[in-house]
Design brief:
6-stranded mixed beta sheet; 5-stranded antiparallel beta sheet; elongated
């Protein structure tokens, strides 16, 4: 009989697996942690079991540490942090306690806010190759599935929690997802572990607690194997989500510009409705934006893909509150934020890089191209943004052009023009960064020169 398994009950479903430090070590060896192992330790029963099992196996692991986040939301928060310090001291495990000073904004789910803040704090300390170990178990997985089902989630949401995912510079591992709460409690009892009970776990106002204390007991009374069936459903949904992502990546490759924030509308319009929605969800998620609601998706299709005239835009309501989609010249752009035009002058001493609100300017020495070094007094330029009415005679052209006309000729979207750096020598426009140099300042033949590059924040090298 395989170690860590109970004998079957005679039906098609085996009894739940037995948890042990050896089982935990097998999981970790599968995922090969090379940096530190950091345990998310709340002081509750689940994380206490995880931390104890890690301590048992510490000689087989890289450096072992624990992290505790004090949200300050309970009157017992300080006592919980003290308990965690005592337990870690007894197990000889270094502990870092994060004291959160912020409060949830009005109208935001307290549970969701606390979870987000907790992961942000812990992700910030992860180094490359570190793993954060979290104690979510099989019952948590079932609750998550039901909550997302009630919210109308798709396959990715119904896959619930993944056992492994990237987090910060490292990875998040959930080694207890295959074990039920009752089994972890048996382990805690056998080893006489001490833990704290969060009084908020009994408050039925929270949806997860209502499911845990009222709904799931009824389901299990009627269908004893419901937890196993629902966890199997999570696995199947994860497979479906993986296949959808693979299809989205193929479609994205055919529609994407060389820059990740622009898609060809002609390619998008050639896709079926289902593939188009799948692509949009994948692309926005890839860019760190929230998945669009059904209403937002309909507006994207109606106003941006199939609308006519103008340069429509649609706010997405992302984490920064500044993400929006815009259409320009039959391409769909994701714009992170729109910085207001400013004519503030910045002095730039070459070759030092100059960081601006919209991106970064760099300069490298060269010959026969770019700005003639001999025409830049003291290797110093003035950097401005457009104020309107600028003119320049581009190198190789036989006439002076309005910059406004050149923007249109180059296909630079209107929102990029306000923050695009213009380079001046005195009061004369010498170059448009990364685009053109004025004839009178252009290097010729093997003349020493400066090659100027402009990299915008939102999408890498300028198009």
């Amino acid at each position: 009989m395989a170690a860590g398994r109970r004998p079957t009950s005679g039906d098609e479903n085996p009894l739940p697996p037995i948890f042990s430090p050896a089982q935990l070590l097998d999981f970790l060896r599968t995922h090969e942690p090379r940096g530190r192992c950091l345990a998310a330790y709340s002081g509750g029963m689940d994380s206490t079991v995880l931390l104890h099992a890690l301590a048992v196996q510490r000689k087989h692991l890289p450096e072992l540490c624990a992290l505790h986040v004090n949200h300050g939301l309970s009157r017992h928060a300080a006592a919980w942090a003290a308990h965690c310090r005592e337990q870690c001291h007894a197990m000889r495990i270094p502990l870092t306690v994060f004291e959160l000073k912020t409060a949830p904004p009005p109208g935001v789910s307290l549970e969701a806010w606390a979870r987000d803040q907790r992961y942000r704090a812990m992700a910030a300390v992860l180094r490359s190759d570190d793993v954060l170990l979290s104690a979510q178990h099989a019952d948590d997985q079932v609750e998550t599935l039901l909550l997302r089902l009630l919210r109308g989630s798709g396959p990715r949401g119904l896959a619930a929690m993944r056992a492994v995912r990237p987090l910060g510079l490292g990875r998040l591992l959930r080694p207890l997802l295959g074990y039920e709460r009752a089994e972890l409690r048996r382990y805690a009892g056998r080893h006489k572990l001490q833990w704290i009970e969060d009084e908020s776990n009994a408050e039925l106002r929270a949806d997860r607690n209502y499911l845990r204390h009222h709904v799931l007991p009824l389901l299990r009374a009627r269908w004893p194997g419901v937890s196993t069936s629902l966890r199997r459903a999570c696995t199947l949904q994860a497979w479906a989500a993986t296949l959808l992502d693979e299809q989205a990546r193929r479609d994205l490759d055919s529609a994407r510009s060389p820059h990740a924030t622009s898609l060809a509308l002609e390619k998008l319009r050639s896709l079926s409705g289902e593939r188009l929605r799948n692509l949009l969800h994948y692309w926005l998620r890839e860019q760190g934006c929230p998945a669009p609601t059904a209403q937002t998706t309909r507006r994207i299709l109606r106003e941006l893909l199939h609308g006519t005239g103008g340069s429509p835009r649609l706010k997405l309501g992302g984490a920064s509150g500044a993400e929006e989609l815009r259409r320009y010249r039959d391409r769909l752009y994701l714009v992170r934020e729109h910085l207001e035009c400013t004519v503030e002058t910045r002095h730039w001493r070459l070759p030092e890089a100059l960081r601006l609100p919209g991106g970064i300017l760099t300069a490298r020495r060269c010959h026969g191209m770019g700005l003639a070094a001999g025409k830049i007094p003291g290797d110093s330029l003035e950097v401005r943004t457009r104020g309107g009415g600028e003119k320049i005679r581009p190198v190789g052209r036989n006439c002076t052009r309005l910059l406004k006309k050149l923007w249109q000729e180059w296909g630079v979207p209107p929102w990029k023009r306000d923050t695009w750096p213009l380079l001046y020598v005195g009061d004369r426009l010498a170059a448009v960064s990364g685009r053109t140099v004025a004839e009178e300042f252009a290097a010729v033949s093997e003349e020493a020169a400066w090659d100027i590059a402009w990299q915008a924040n939102e999408e890498g090298p300028a198009p």
